[in-house]
Structures are given as structure tokens and as C-alpha cells.
Design goal:
By secondary structure, this protein is α/β, with parallel strands linked by helices. It has one domain (about 1-5, about 15-175): Double Stranded RNA Binding Domain, CATH 3.30.160. It is built from three helices and seven strands, in the order βββαββαββα. Strands 1, 2, 3, 4, 5, 6 and 7 form a seven-stranded mixed β-sheet that branches. The chain is elongated.
Amino acid sequence: MCFEHTTLPEIKNSPPKEKFSIEMQVGDFKQYYNNKIDKRGIISDKDMGYNCLVGIVEPWKNSKLISSYEKETDKKAHQAYTLNVDGKITQIASPTLNIFSVITLFIIPSYNTTTFDLKMKLKDNATGKIFNATLYSSFTIWKELIFLPLFPLFLSDMDEGRLSKSMHLYHEFKKQGAFN
């Protein structure tokens, strides 16, 4: 199950007159596991930063608020805006409890709490103006056999949470004068 710790108001964004392209950059971005720097090697800090950025700008593109987005290394054309992410992702879990949970086929429950603490910087490449916003979000996933039938609801909640955070961030940048 997914329990969203933050509730954001529903925001209705009107599409801009002109659609913009965005270049994504990852700045100082770290992953932590149980409050220690994550050295497990599952995914690099930079790749995780890009995953966070894609999760933010993909709903913008799907809602037709921007025309496209590119990674920093794909400089094929001049992008109107550059979106930079700094921050950290912290996962809190008990490795021992997770192992026992898997061994018992999730009869013994386990959980994982993931916290995103992101500082976003949007730069208008034409004017050089910089817009700042922060995004703090936390969710807990409980893994237990009894929750298995509710798995589709979990996925729906995760998507709704991601969309809500993305649109909230777009609204924050727009309030500061971006995308005009």
C-alpha cells in the first residue's frame, strides 16, 4: 500500500501560448539508505536524478505544457529552459525485516519509507532569469500478503502523487513568471 504523507491542492494549469523545450541537468544529488550514503550500486546518483526529472517533466509534456525535454548530453538544439535538480532521496527500511518478509512470502510485513528532498532551479535561457522551487515528499510502502489484491490501487496512488507533485512544481514556476 502507499500512504502519501503530503496532500497538495489540485491545480489546473492553462496551456501556455507557446510551448517550450526543457534541458534537464542534475547537480548535487545524493541517495541515502538508512541515513547513510547509498553505495549499493543499484543506480548512480546522476541517473536517479534524471529519473526524478523525467518524473517531473513527463506529465508537463503529456499535458501539452511543454513541447519536449532532453538530457543535458543530448544538446541537439537550443532549449528554451534548463531544469536543474539538487537534493537527496532517503530510503528508510529494515534489511533484516525485508529478508524475513520475503522468506515467509510476505506473511511477515515489511515497509520502506522513501523521502524526496529536492531543490529545483529553472533557468530561462533567453533572459538568464532563474526560478527556484523546492519539493519535499515522502511515502511509505507496506509489503504484506494481505495487501496483494490492492496492488493496482497502489500503482494508481503512486501515479496520482507523481502527477500532483509535478503540476504543483509547474504552478510554482509559473507563479514566479516562468513559461510566459
